[in-house]
Structure formats: structure tokens, C-alpha cells
Amino acid sequence: xxxxxxxxxxxxxxRYVPEKVNGKTVIPYQGVGRYKPEGQKHAPAIPSYADYPxxxxxxxxxxxxxxxxxxxxDGMTISTHHHFRNGDVLANQLFDAxxxxxxxNLVWFPSASFPCHEHLIRYLxxxxxxxxxxxxxxxxxxxxxxxxxxxxxxxxxxxxxYQAVQDGEVKxxxxxxxxxxxxxFGNSSGLYGPSASGLLGFALADxxxxxxxxxxxxxxxxxxxxxxxxxxxYVDYTVEMDQIGIPEKIVSGTTRITxxxxxxxxxxxxxDFCEATGILRDGFSFQSxxxxxSLAAAEFFAGKMREKGIKARFARGGSNKYLVNMLEEGLVExxxxxxxxxxxxxxxxxxxxxxxxxxxxxxxxxxxxxxxAGMVDVVILGATEVDVHFNANVVTHSDGYLLHGIxxxxxxxxxxxxxxxxxLFRDRIPVVKDAVTTLCGPGELIDVVVTERGIAINPRRTDxxxxxxxxxxxxxxxEELKExxxxxxxxxxxxxLEDELVAAIKWVDGTVIDAVRKVKV
Amino acid sequence: xxxxxxxxxxxxxNVRSDCFVTLELTxxxxxxxxxxxxxxxxxxxxxxxxxxxxxxxxxxxxxxLQIEDTGALPLVIAARIEAALKELIDSDEEYLLPMSEENKxxxxxxxxxxxxxxxxxxxxxxxxxxxxxQPNGIILDLEDSVAPNKKRExxxxxxxxxxxxxxxxxxxxxxxxxxxxxxKDLRYIVPHNVQVILIPKCEGAxxxxxVENEIHKIKERNPAGNDIFLMPIIESGRGVENAFEIxxxxxxxxxxxxxxxxxxxxxxxxxxxxxxxxxxxxxxxxNACRAARIQPIDSVFSDVGDEDGLKAAVKESKxxxxxxMGCIHPRQIRIIHRGFAPDEEEIExxxxxxxxxxxxxxxxxxxxxxxxxxxxxxxxxxxxxxxxLAIFLGLIPEDWRDRFIS
Lengths: 521, 406
What we know:
Chain A is an alpha/beta fold. Chain A is 25% helix and 22% strand.
């Protein structure tokens, strides 16, 4: 159902966005660094030691009992986290319990959703959940895009999620934190246990700001749970469960670099670009995700770093065995990690003090006193579409369907050089085009688009243009790339969309940068 | 299967950039076109228009056409519809999309043929991006990589690919089937700027003659054509014995290759990584090619994941006298180029010779001399080729002579 396209205003990137989302007034995007909030951060009620067991044992018998004690009621906002990725059993069990309690019209506030959460569609259908604020991937994205969700979805970046909670834009009534191990007091960590996920950084804001915090684990250890990543002092109830995650779906046994020759070429061109423009230098820093091309780019970085005898001061994770190898080989001094993608990542985080866990607060929060993202020399990101002004889309495909969350993508745009290695087209669909279907990141923050048929550099980056001029890199302007894509694929029709809005895309500062429309079915 | 229904193309879980077409000629009633496409909302209408245009072109008024599309380019969709259609009707007409301007380049006999990338002739997704990996040649294979029951439809696809896919300067090659099947192949490729035809399992000069005669006949009907070069592939004991005869069978032959899978099977040997079992045959091929003044080209290295093995194989191949190898994966291309690249000593020597040639030209001298040694023109030409290659591979700058001190 979403909401009708009434009272739309044009924001600073020319997108028409609503003034209200789910009945709450929102601020249209005003430009990078323009919107500055006033007032105080949100604060939860002051708790008292007297209200908690003096022996520190906060265990209750079941998730249902914890929810009841936490005072769950209609219309509340319930948060969960995506540390278990596609192996998350907990969020599904949580809403099974809520359904049994007969509570309705909830807002589900996950840090991300995965295809395993298709189970929750039944609760969107029966009114248990009104809408999702987080990400709508896979089946949930399809469901939302086709206008079936009752309320309007809200998509935020990882940093934007922290910002929204901290600023009181989202008030979490009950946070449910799944932890690989925890003690009865609530100290918890993702480093150990069958559902080990590495770290629990995405739950930090929830532990600090939610009214009630429940920690669920399938690996309860005696106090103290060392090291603790979530402090038990924030926790109201702890629950011991049979299973909260499916280990092989939480982290892969081993991450594999893509074998696609086209993706490898993109990764190699990205590394060549960084070499030719002097970004790869002793003491530099980088971030590359766990996607096929990003992972391969890091491997090409490693090869060039060995040849040149240089090392990176730090790399930002998602960590995986390739990044861990670089750390252990001495090519990287520190990994500042946001999430671990494989068992090697978890082992390294457990054993190596130079493999440091971070959170969206330290890495990404825009309403903080700075963050790490801006200090990174080069970040390698994906995108579903890029337009001729370098604006990019990461949440919808060209047919208008929501298929991905924002993740840390928007936050990473503040790094010193942002490179998007993307194929010029995917299965006939041009990636470089006149206008993106959904605008998630403004072009002024995106520096380089690497495609297999040429590299486009944002005209704002005259320094990179000058450096690349003296290289053998196939530099083209972005219009040329767009034309080449259309010549090969044909010019696509505009996607068939209705007026009705199904989701709003938040920028890192909480303003609305774009709205997603219902797809004509 | 009804005699009024025909199929073409591929579908299934791992199929991308292709389509599967079901065509029924109904005899009466209007035609209906049903499109199920992965890119429906963006290209559904243009797919429909293309299908209508093709049916109109062949004057089909009563048909049911179903297209199951996984993001095929128009040239693929057109090939699939035409292939299905020609199962049902007899027509000499061809529905040809325009020949892309980028594909009108010509190649010459002497150009580098270090790498030639094999692509299955009925798998469009591999063709679209092949050129960006910069092989010296791209082979659209109609022979071993296409199943017997798919050979017919593959010809339409290869024809359309030759016309419409940008190969970014790579030499445009097709490996045809052995005759008589190969006759049919030639009709689909000769008029469409194919540059090198690979003749598989070649055992004698008569194989080359057959191909050349057929090309000649087709070119008489389609006079606007480029030179078509030939590359016989030796894959049997008999072929090895007749190597020189084959290599000199036509002045259109630019290179001759050896195919070791079939060759080792033919002589009853096991193919090994060290390739010692084919040492004699490979040397024989190199010798025949050198005697015939054509390029000797080595077989493919089959283990795609073994980069070190490939490097060693290229090194040995070069040391035996080969000038190139086949590739079955784009990631092999760069390793092969690097392996066949001239080393520092060869480059320095070539610089001296080419520089001497420039100097003699500047001084208006007829002969080229390096010190007291006279240099023959073919040696100069070869040195220039070495430098061209070094420039192409980024080993020396284009303006190397500005900085050259002889």
C-alpha cells in the first residue's frame, strides 16, 4: 500500500520526495553537509539497579516471556541485527513469538534483511508488522516494490541507522540482540559459539538507546563473557535459546574470489587506476567490500603492494581471508572491521590485536564528531546504476524493484576517492545511463566509474584526470560510456512505475534523498 | 514434435544473455507473440517490434511465437527467431542486422597471433565481452564446442555475431566443422568479414583446397569481401606427416596450429603437462611453418586455474619456435602475451636494427648496416615487429627512438 504521492517537494538533487513518511514529518535532502540538526541526542529512561536482579542473572525462560516483560504492545518499534546474515533464525523466531502474543502494527527495524526473512511476509500480510525500516532485500524487496506492505519502507545506511537512533528519529521500544555468546548479565560477543558472527557492532546503537534490550544466545556462558562487545549494563533480559543462527549461512567456510573474467578485469583495471594515479602509496588506506569485484580488487592491490614493497596503514573491512592474509603478511598494519564474512575473519579478529572491531558509530555516524570513513584513501563500491552526473543507485534495479539495502555504501562515499567498478551493462541492462532509477548517492561524492569498456573520471577530480592522462588507462567521458552501452543494448524504456510511494531513501544525515515508487505488476 | 513447431536457443538456470524461441506456423489466424523476459519492462516492447519485423520480413502471417528471454541482445534474438523459422520454411533470404562500423577493419598476414580465444559458437554471453580482454584473435567455434543438434542454429548466431558484436580489433576467426558440414558453415561466415577460417583436423592439402574452393564460390556471389586467411589445425599423425604440404597448400594460409587433445589420442599417447609425447609433432609443425614462412601456433593449455603451469608451457612453446597459443579462458591471454613478448635483449637488438634502418633512410642509403654487418630487409621488418609488440604490451614507449642512444 505504501502512501500516495501527495505533497511532494523537489529536493537538492532534483528528486521529488514526500514531506511525511508514515505520518511523520521528514526533511528533504539539502545537499552534502548542508543539513545540521539542532537540539539534544535521544536518551532512554534512567534505569535503576534496584529494578534488576542483584545477582546479575537477567535470564528469562523464553523470548516470549522476555517480550511480555518488556511490555510489548501494538505499534512498537522492534529492532534486530543482520550479524547472522542469511543464516538468521532469531528474527523469524522473534516474530513467531510476537504473532502468538497477538501484537499488531509493529515497525520492524533491522540493520539489514536477507532472503531468509521471506518467512516474515506472512506477518506483513496479517498486520503483525506494519512496515520495515532497514533494508528490503530479495523477496521482501519484491513484496515492498509491488506495493503490498501496509506502511512505507524506509531505507538507511549503516551510519544513517546509528544517526537515526541517536537523534531520536527512530525510537526503539525493544531491541533483540542475537549474540554468538553471552553471559546471564547480558555481556555479549560474536566471537565464539556455534552462531559466531565476528562482532556485534550493528547492535551498538540499539543497546545504548532502546527502551528495552533483550539479548538472545544459543551459547550462554558463565559471567563474565570475555571480551564483551555489548555491555550487559545496557541489557534488560537474557534468553537462552536452542538455535539462533545457521552457522554455514552466517559466515562462509571460506570466501572465494570471483572467477568471472569480466569481473576480474574490472578489479584489475581498478587496481591499475589506483597505481597510475598514485593512490597506491606507502601508508595508504583502503576499503573494499566482500562482493566479487571488490574482493578481487584487494587481491590485485596485494600483488602491486608486494611488487612495490609498500604497505597500507589500515584497511577497512568487511574482513575475509584475503584481507586477513594481507594483515598477516604485513601488507596491512590494521584491519578496522565492521563485519566478518568468513571463518578466517573471525579467527583473526579473535587472535590478532591488529584486527580491530568497529561499529557504525566509529566508522560511519554522520552526526558524530567525525568518523573513520572520510579518512580512507580509496573505497571500492558497487552500484546497480550510475548516471551521467555520477549519481548512483544501490537499492533498486533498473526495473524499479528494491533488491539491495544501502549498507555502508552511502557512508563510504566520504572517503577521499570513491571508485565504482561496474559492468557497462548487465544482461542487456545498461548500468551507465541518463538518470538513475533511484538516487542513493550524489555524484559530487563519486569520483571514478570503472567499466570494462572504459574509465570515467568525475570532472571535479581534475587531479585524477591529470594523473590518468599520462597512463595507458582507457579513460573516456561518462557520456561516451553511456552511449556505448545504449549502442550495444538499445535504449531501454523507462520502468513502469505507479505514483504511489513504497519506500523512502534516507541520506546519511536523516534527510530524504529519494523515494521509491510502486512497480506496475 | 509437430512438423509445424520449431525451437532455437537456450534456456535453463545458468543461461544468460540468450533466449529460447518456440515458433509454430499456424496456417490460419493472426500471429501472437508471447514474450517472457528478464528485461520485460525495459525492452519488452523493442523485443516485440524486432520479432514482428522478422516475421514480416519472411512474410509470415500466421504464427505463434514464444520468446523466453534472459537478457539477449537483439542480434541474438534475431538469430534465434531466424533459426527456428528456417526449420519450418525454405528461404534463401537472410534477415541481416547492419554490419557494425567497428567491425569493418581488415587484418594482414603478418600480424601478431600470440593469443586466439576460443568461444563456443552457440553461447552468446561469452561472445559479448570477449574483445575487451584484448586477445589477438577471437574464434567463434562451430566445431567441437557446439553439440551436433545445435550446429544449425549456431551458424545464425555466429553470422550475427560477426556482423554485430564489437571485437575491439581482435582478428575475427571462425573454426568450421569438417566437410561436408563445414560447407554449410562457410555460407554463414564468408560474406560477413570473417578474417581467418580455422580448418580443424586437417590431414592433407586437399582439405585446404576444398575450403578455399568453397570460399571462392561464395565470394563470387558476394564480391564485396575482404581477404580471408586460413589456419589449418593439425590434429593427427597423418596431419603431422603432411605438415609442410598443408602449410604450403594456399597462399592464404597465415598460420598453422596443432591440436594436442586429438593428436595425442590419435597416436595412442597420454597427454601430459610436460607434453614430451608431442615434442616431435610440435617441432615438426614449427619446422614446416618456418619452411613455408607462416606462423606456427601451439595448442591450448587446458588447466585454466594453473597460471604457473601456463607460464611454463608458454616459455617452452616459445623456446620451441611457436609464435602463439590457443586460449580457452580470457585470463590466459595476458600470460600468453607476456610469455611470447620479446625479452630485454631482443628489444635492445631490435632497437639497434630499426634505428640503423631509419638512419640509412635519413642518409638516403639503400642498404642498412649495423657496424660492419649488412642487415637484410626481412630482418628489419622482424625487428620492427618486435618493437611494435613491445609498444603494444607497454614494455617501451611509442617514442622510444627519441630516447634511444645507439
